[in-house]
Design a protein that fits this description.
With about 375 residues, this protein is an alpha/beta fold. The protein has two domains: about 150 residues, Aspartate Aminotransferase, domain 1 (Alpha-Beta Complex); about 220 residues, 3-Layer(aba) Sandwich (Aspartate Aminotransferase, domain 2). The chain is about 35% helix and about 15% strand. It is built from 13 helices and eleven strands. A seven-stranded mixed sheet has the order 2-8-7-6-5-3-4, sandwiched between helices. A two-stranded parallel ribbon has the order 1-10. A two-stranded antiparallel ribbon has the order 9-11. α3 packs antiparallel against α10, α4 runs parallel beside α10 and α5 runs parallel beside α6. About 45% of the residues are buried. The protein binds pyridoxal-5'-phosphate.
Length: about 375
């Protein structure tokens, strides 16, 4: 049976009164004309707050490049592929040989698993985290060591260090982390890397980099690289660039590491439409800034609404938030589903928490309307 990405994520993870009295503050955004019409949802379909996508979709310039690309889909995209690799290399001041493209950044995770994991070479990962790495590790026959996050929802780096194996290990660091939207301080990761045996590879997943903001705790390993051939950084076009449906991600590593990983990649794994879209997206800094601003405004308003209800979500450094409902998450998810709002899947390690992706201000107003219909919501409300 074909196992879709969504299904494998599920299979791995199995293991109103106040609202009406509160005015939802809708932010005044600047250059709305930069954007295509908002691609919210199918008429009558559910509101999607479930997959941490960019609700506004690609920018107008990116969308135009994608439409133009349709005229040459009969040709292999070799030249454009090289142009994109070069553009990414320039962006991060690395050599083109250090850049790997993937069918989503999930493919970069798969390449790392294929190259560095196997029997006797365990994956060390935080828990909970994005489940794809675990899936690929198991496919490679590797043991998976899941280390619970600390009380501040950071990676427990001391325990992760203690679990590395002399025979070789891949450590997965997801920063900011999905599903908790939390940060692990950069200085702690640097100290951790400094202590690792040189048989250990580290994959740093920066899927949500653009949303992390200017926290003193955070610095990307692409913006502030360390001189270590065993560090791999992954990024995606699925989030800030709004291209989740076209599947593109990339990884950056030392030339030898990239070569080793790339030997497991599907040849010509990336399609010409998304490559042309990505070239335009990387050139469109104004839209990235606008998307970040919109997310910040919606995030701030979410916290205002939560506080008014005496709720305490985990501090979010991403385009989603994790919040303790103090009730079984499964029931809360089902309540939202029945009310036409899809929120994130269950994370068994945090069974009373829900993960909510940020949508448009209107989507979020709908979220709170449905929240206030929960039988237990009233007890949290401010009077
Ligand atoms: C932390 C993290 N890494 C990677 C991915 C996969 O992204 P892509 O669409 O690039 O495969 C996701 C998707 O939600 C994610 O949350």
């Amino acid at each position: 049976m074909h196992l879709s990405r969504r299904n494998f994520l599920r299979s791995v993870s199995v293991g109103a009164a106040a609202a009406t009295s509160m005015r939802l503050l809708l932010p005044a955004w600047s250059s709305a004309t930069v954007f295509e019409p908002v691609r919210r949802r199918e008429p009558g379909g559910p509101i999607h707050l479930d997959n941490n996508e960019n609700v506004y979709g690609p920018s107008a310039k990116t969308a135009a490049a994608i439409r133009a690309a349709l005229g040459s889909v009969n040709r292999y995209p070799f030249q454009e592929y090289d142009a994109l690799v070069e553009q990414i290399a320039n962006l991060h001041s690395v050599k083109p040989e250090q850049v790997m493209l993937g069918c989503g950044s999930t493919e970069i995770l798969r390449l790392a698993a294929a190259a560095f994991l196997g029997p006797g070479k365990p994956l060390i990962q935080p828990s909970p985290t994005f489940e794809a790495m675990e899936h690929y590790a198991r496919s490679a026959g590797a043991e998976v060591v899941s280390v619970p996050l600390t009380l501040t929802f950071a990676h427990d780096l001391d325990t992760m260090l203690a679990r590395t194996a002399a025979s070789g290990t891949l450590v997965y660091i997801c920063n900011p982390n999905n599903p908790t939207a939390s940060l692990t301080p950069r200085k702690d990761i640097d100290t951790f890397i400094g202590k690792l045996p040189d048989t250990t590879y580290v994959l740093i997943d920066e899927a949500y980099h653009h949303y992390a903001g200017k926290s003193a705790m955070y610095a990307s390993f692409l913006d502030r690289p360390v001189d270590n051939p065993r560090i791999i950084v992954s990024r995606t076009f699925s989030k800030i660039y709004g291209l989740a449906g076209l599947r593109l991600g990339y990884g950056i590593a030392a030339t030898t590491t990239a070569k080793q990983m790339n030997s497991y990649a599907t040849l010509d794994n990336v399609n010409g439409v998304v490559v042309r879209g990505a070239i335009a997206a990387l050139d469109d800094a104004a839209s990235v800034t606008e998307f970040i601003k919109r997310n910040e405004d919606v995030r701030q308003e979410f916290f205002n609404q939560a506080m008014a209800r005496m709720l305490k979500p985990i501090d979010s450094h991403t385009n989603f938030v994790m919040m303790n409902t103090h009730h079984p998450a499964e029931q809360v998810i089902e309540h939202f589903r029945k009310n036409n709002v899809l929120i994130g899947r269950r994370f068994p390690a945090m069974d009373s928490y829900i993960r909510v992706s940020f949508g448009t201000p209107g989507d979020m107003a709908a979220f709170w309307r449905v929240w206030d219909l929960l039988p237990f919501a009233k007890s949290h409300m401010q009077h």
